[in-house]
Amino acid sequence: MKSTMLVGKTALVTGSTSGIGLGIARSLAEQGANIVFNGFGDAQQIEKLYTDIGAEFGVQTAYHNADMSKPQEIEAMMAYALEKFGGVDVLVNNAGIQHVAAVEDFPTEKWDAIIAINLSSAFHTTRLALPGMKQKNWGRIINLASVHGLVGSSQKSAYVAAKHGLVGFTKVTALETAQTGVTANAICPGFVLTPLVQKQVDDRAAREGLDNDAARRALLSEKQPSGEFVTPEELGALAVFFCSPAAAQVRGVAWNMDGGWAAQ
């Protein structure tokens, strides 16, 4: 039986053309939400992606190619969602990039880009979505932080700083909306087998002369006690829970789904 929990609602998911964002977009569409997709990729493939998901779940879908490092493009995307669907009811801030280097070697332009896309973009989408959510007295803001919003790892200064910042921003947003029907929460995944993490696996396999499975196990064994990747589908199910009536008083949490990483 088709779920109808989010019928009539619109979800905007940044960075949703692959990986975690796509998994969450699918889960919200399955609940009946219209979806505004955002992200980079081949234009024809993206069109097929959002058209297929719309057909599969019987929802309306659209796409905006805003570069999440540029506030003006974010403003254009939010205006597009307003014009097309009457606003954003569920905002999922998922867009993110990564660069790995020691602090003293970290390229300043990479630092600026990571802070802009992983942190500042969430501020811009949130400030633009909140007036409409408050007017309707219903909204869900879900920020994809990371276990790196809770703990550090060497060589990832910009990413860790941005994700810690995103957790803090989520708490403030939750406090400011505490007496409304709008909630704000963060999801903090551990290793998820996205293209970003697969690249780390491939690099490790090449560097250490391992096959892909052995490289995956080696990567997980260092951080994630379960020895298993988190899946986009599991993260999507958590996002759906945050949208449900049962989560009405879940406000300002940083909910880690990390196979035990932060429990150590």
TrEMBL record:
One of its GO terms (biological process) is monocarboxylic acid metabolic process. It comes from the Bacteria. Coiled coil: none annotated. One of its GO terms (molecular function) is 3-hydroxybutyrate dehydrogenase activity. Belongs to the short-chain dehydrogenases/reductases (SDR) family. This is 3-hydroxybutyrate dehydrogenase. It comes from Massilia aurea.
